Amino acid sequence: ERSLRGTRRTIAALQRRTLSNFERKKHCNSDHVCNNDRQLATARQNTMLIELSVQNFRSIRERQTFSMVAAPRLIKGKPNKVTPKVKGERFPALLKVAAIYGPNASGKSTLVRAFQLLSDLTRLQPTTEKVPFEVTPFRFDQSLLDQPSSFEVHFIRNETRYSFEVALTRDRIVAEVLTMYRRGDARELYR
Question: What is the pTM of this model?
Answer without folding.
Answer: 0.72
